[in-house]
Design goal:
261 residues, mainly alpha, Endonuclease Iii, domain 2, 14 helices, 55% helix, Endonuclease III, domain 1
Length: 261
């Protein structure tokens, strides 16, 4: 992280104001992926590369009925897995990775990922890069991690929080300026803001809650939010917030898993 620490960053007071506004707007935000176990989150996150969360949830609803855990997925052939995830982009390479990863996890830990795991442990599995590992660590393990996906990358750069050319160095810049206690939440705030307001095309700067602190607002913004304001905590987020029902369903399963730790 030496490169990130040497570059001057945005004023910390401005960063705090942006985080406060996003935190209020996207209060309670969580991953849109539907899962019940740590293993299922890993599978869903692997599938999410170059694929929308909505489509991933449709795929995993079918996949998890057939193979809800690592041993049952390991029992399928690569061709059978590919047939189940065919709607997903890069489905053949993902099927290969899931087949290999499920065999490793089943042999090493059984049905689910263990109660404690490091980023290095996760990244040693086929198909698991740093972003996937960070998503699993933050959402399934409650670890301080901040995954940089396309939405986080775009919003961070428009806010002037990073000018790094890649996700890894952008992550380093964000970890430097965002308080560690907010890493997990900031990941979700930036994602939902990128989806709902700060879209790649025609960002809705006119109704953006952080436009006053955004150096890009005058040059990229146009139009109104694609999603009409809902009844939730922020623009375009219906009530209940995306993820609320999923968290409720996951909580029991993960509490059981954690009680074994």
């Amino acid at each position: 992280m030496s490169g990130a620490s040497e570059r001057p960053g945005p004023a910390r007071a401005r960063v705090r104001r942006v985080l406060a506004a996003l935190g209020e707007t996207y209060r309670g935000a969580s991953t849109a992926l539907v899962y019940r176990t740590r293993w299922q989150l890993l599978v869903a996150t692997i599938l999410s590369a170059q694929c929308t969360d909505e489509r991933v949830n449709r795929i995993t609803a079918r996949l998890f009925r057939v193979a809800p855990d690592a041993p049952s997925l390991a029992a399928l052939s690569e061709e059978e897995i590919a047939a189940l995830i065919r709607e997903c982009g890069l489905f053949r390479s993902k099927a290969r990775h899931l087949a290999a990863t499920s065999r490793i996890v089943a042999a090493r830990w059984g049905a689910d990922l263990p109660p404690a795991l490091t980023r290095e442990d996760l990244m040693a599995l086929p198909g698991v890069g740093r972003k996937t590992a960070n998503v699993v660590l933050a959402n399934a393990y409650g670890a301080d991690a901040l995954a940089v996906d396309t939405h986080v990358f775009r919003v961070a750069h428009r806010l002037g929080w990073s000018d790094a050319p890649d996700a890894r160095r952008t992550e380093e810049d964000l970890l430097r300026i965002i308080p560690r206690s907010q890493w997990k939440d900031a990941h979700h705030w930036l994602i939902w803001h990128g989806r709902r307001v700060c879209r790649a095309r025609r960002p809705a700067c006119g109704t953006c809650v952080v436009a006053r602190w955004c150096p890009s607002a005058d040059r990229v913004g146009e139009g109104q939010p694609h999603d009409a304001p809902g009844r939730g905590q922020g623009p375009g987020i219906p009530e209940p917030h995306p993820g609320d029902a999923r968290r409720a369903g996951r909580a029991g399963a993960l509490r059981v898993a954690r009680s074994d730790a």
